[in-house]
Amino acid sequence: MPALKRYCLALDLKNDPELIAEYEAHHNAVWPEIKKSILESGIRHMEIFRIENRLFMIMEAAEDFSFEKKAAADENNPKVQEWEDLMWRYQQALPTAKPGEKWLLMKSIFRL
C-alpha cells in the first residue's frame, strides 16, 4: 500500500451551543455524495475533532492528492456546493483566514 500524506486543518464554529449540536448532527449523517467526493479526491481517511467551537481535521490522502484539484472538483459539484453552503451556516473563519478561506492548514511543530 502506498504511503499516505497527512494534513491537519483547523476551523471555528459559531459559538452557539444549538448551532454546534446541529453541525454535529449533520456530521453523524453526512450525505453519500459528500463521502463519495471526498474519497474520489484521493482522501483515504478523515476525522474531525471538536473542543468548544474549535474544529481540528486530520486527513490522510494519496500521494497525488492536491487541494487545488479537490477545490476545482468541488466547485463543479452542485451537491458539494449545497453541503458547503449549509455548513457555512455553522462555521466561521479563523481570525487569520483570508477572504474565502475556511479550513486552514496547520503546521506540524512536534513529532515523537
Your description of this structure?
With 112 residues, the chain is an alpha+beta fold. It has one domain: Alpha-Beta Plaits (2-Layer Sandwich). It is 36% helix and 27% strand. It has four helices and five strands. Strands 1, 2, 3, 4 and 5 form a five-stranded antiparallel β-sheet that branches. The relative contact order is 0.25. The mean pLDDT is 96. GO terms for molecular function: racemase and epimerase activity, acting on carbohydrates and derivatives. It holds the Pfam family rhaM.
How many domain modules? Answer: 1
The CATH architecture name reads 2-Layer Sandwich
Number of helices: 4
Between the first and last Cα atoms, what is the distance in angstroms?
A: 23 Å
- Report the major sheet: 5 strands, antiparallel
| Secondary-structure element string | EHHEEHHEE
Strand residue content:
25-35%
How much helical structure, as a percent, in the residues? Answer: 25-40%
Kindly identify the CATH topology: Alpha-Beta Plaits
| CATH class categorisation | Alpha Beta
Question: How many beta strands in the DSSP annotation?
Answer: 5
- Mean pLDDT equals 96
Structural class determined from secondary elements: alpha+beta
TL;DR?
The protein has 112 residues and is α+β, with helices and mostly antiparallel strands. 36% of the residues lie in helices and 27% in strands.
Secondary structure layout:
Layout: E1 5-13, H1 17-27, H2 32-40, E2 43-51, E3 54-61, H3 67-75, H4 78-88, E4 91-92, E5 104-105
Antiparallel strand pairs: 1-3, 1-4, 1-5, 2-3
